Structure formats: structure tokens, C-alpha cells
Amino acid sequence: MCPPDTFSYNCLIKVLCETGNLLKAARLVEEMESKDIVHDCFTATFLVRGCCKIGLYYDALQYFKKFKDSGISLDGVVYNVAIDAWCKLGEMECAMDLFQEMMDQGLFPDKIHFTTLICGIAAMEK
């Protein structure tokens, strides 16, 4: 039997996050690390999005930072999820800083990123 790899773990993490089992998903990430199995931008996206899905925005942002600090290459999708988390917390300055950081990393915003920021600003106006 082949040992599990990043793809295998990501499949499990995705399903666990989609069903609200964040604790089990986080444990799998820890297991990956203990077995020296690298996580990737998909691992980050699933866990960050999973936290946001159940309103754990600060946890989502902590995971985002953890993955970013680990040196993996993050994509525009996970950046947008983190930007949205800051918007949901009403922290537009932090959202804009992260938006700028994303561009500084060579990632170019698309209409989804701009929509996220516009919705965040609109929510602040209410």
C-alpha cells in the first residue's frame, strides 16, 4: 500500500472542512507536518475557507499566517479568502494591506478580489 501524500491529505482535509470538522482537519495538517509531508496552497485554502465558513475568522487568519510563514506559495484564491475574513471582521485597513501584499507577491487581482473589497466597504457603510 502506498503511503498518503499531499493530495491524499488534501482530499480528506477538504471534506472535513466542508462538513465543519475543523478540529480533525487541523489534526491532519499537524500529522502531515509530523510526517514531513508538505502542505500546499490547496491545504491552506481548504483550512482557511473552512474556518471562515463557520465564522472563525481570527482562526482563519492565523492559519493563513501560519501557511504564509511556512514558505509555501499561496495563490490568489487563499488570499481572497483571507481578505474576505478581514472584511467580515470590519478591518478594511487590514484587508487592503493584505490586498497590497498579494500584489507585491506578484499575484494580480481579478474581479473576485475587487468584489470582495467592494462588499467589505459597503458593509462598513451600513
From TrEMBL:
The keyword Repeat applies. Keywords: Repeat. It comes from the Eukaryota. PPR repeats lie at residues 5-39, 40-74, 75-109. The keyword Glycoprotein does not apply. Belongs to the PPR family. P subfamily. This is Pentatricopeptide repeat-containing protein. It comes from Dendrobium chrysotoxum.
